[in-house]
Amino acid sequence: MLTKILNVNGAQELKKNQQRFITGGRMPTVFEFCCGPRSQGWWIERYPEIAGDPFYNCSTVSC
Fold first, then answer.
1. DSSP assignment letter at 3
2. Taking CA 26 as the corner, what is the angle to CA 25 and CA 29, rounded to the nearest 5 degrees?
3. Could you tell me which of 3, 56, 62 has the C-alpha nearest to residue 27?
4. Measured distance CA(1)–CA(12) in Å, rounded
5. Region at 11 (left for phi over 0; alpha for psi -120 to 50; beta for the rest)
6. What 3-state DSSP class applies to 20?
7. 33-45 pLDDT tens trace
8. What pTM was computed for the model?
9. Span 7-17, pLDDT tens digits
């Protein structure tokens, strides 16, 4: 799956699940991001790519 990546610049074009595989992280669910015990700022600090992601829209979640 990731054998065609030749340099770091190519990492910007990966899908989220591929980025998680490379970095070893775990992206939060929308519920965790919006309602979880950790703040949204905490998640964004660790995963800055979710800051502008429309998937993480808290207006669609009921806490």
1. T
2. 155
3. 56
4. 15
5. alpha
6. helix
7. 999 899 999 999 8
8. 0.57
9. 555 555 667 76
